[in-house]
Amino acid sequence: MSDYLKGKRVVDPVLTSIARGYKNAAFIGERIFPVVLTDKEGVRVPTFGKTAFVEYDTERAVGADSNVLVREKTGTLDLVLGEHDLAAPVDYREQAESMFNEESKAIRRATNGVNLRRELIAARLAQDEKVYRTGHVKKLTASDRWAGGKGDPIGVIEAGMEAVRTATGLRPNLMTMGAGVMALLK
Predict the structure, then answer these.
(1) Which structural domain range is residue 22 located in?
(2) Mean pLDDT for the chain?
(3) Which residues face 44 on adjacent strands?
(4) Which one, of 33, 24, 34, 26, lies nearest residue 126 by Cα?
(5) Is the pLDDT score of 130 beyond 90?
């Protein structure tokens, strides 16, 4: 009998309850970069110009011609999706010896592995200075640090929000930070 299968028979109630309740910390990648579901591996996404942000004169006198919009040309952005998968094999002998459903555990492990990879890709993208316009990244120097009551964290954050609003026309409504950072800001 293999030691691996013997290991499947051991039951530690404390460790088992901890293992059952374990999960990765909450992923935030989907809050920063929302996932859009599609049935196809390739899609054409319509792109629109700035006319959506233009104020038009909509007032019309009685009997006057209607105000007519100039037809906007829309473009498309072709996207081809990459496939990600992960397999977690389960031997039939392993399933027979275990007190847990090994197939369910394998599915959870594989799903968590794919989700963790997606989270890491999102984190790298969000922290990559090359994806932002010039002047839209602020590096804090040692003298700008927010530690020990120094610096102006609220002012820096609000200046960053204003820079985003000026560039996009939308005020950002999402900011992520670690629990330790939030405690220091209070």
Answers:
(1) 1-49+72-127
(2) 80
(3) 78
(4) 33
(5) yes
Residue type present at position 176: T
Helix (H) or strand (E) holding 92: helix 92-97
If we measure between CA atoms, which residue out of 125, 131, 123, 133 comes closest to residue 160? 133
Q: How much is the pTM?
A: 0.64
Eight-state DSSP code of residue 62: T
Residue 164 makes CB contacts below 8 A (sequence gap 6+) with 136, 170, 171, 172
Domain edge (last residue) among 109, 127, 145: 127
C-alpha radius of gyration, the chain, whole number: 26
Tokens 């964290």 appear where? 153
Output 90 or 180, whichever has higher pLDDT.
90
| 13-30 residue pLDDT tens | 545 555 554 456 678 888
Largest CA distance in the chain: 93
Domain count, the chain: 2
Contact 163, 131 (CB under 8 A): no
Closest-CA residue to 88 (of 69, 103, 74, 66): 103
Six token digits for residue 178: 């670690």
In a domain, 55, yes or no: no
Dig out the tokens for 48 from the structure. Answer: 């629109």
78 and 43 in a common domain: yes
Question: Rounded to whole angstroms, how far apart are CA atoms 46 and 29?
Answer: 24
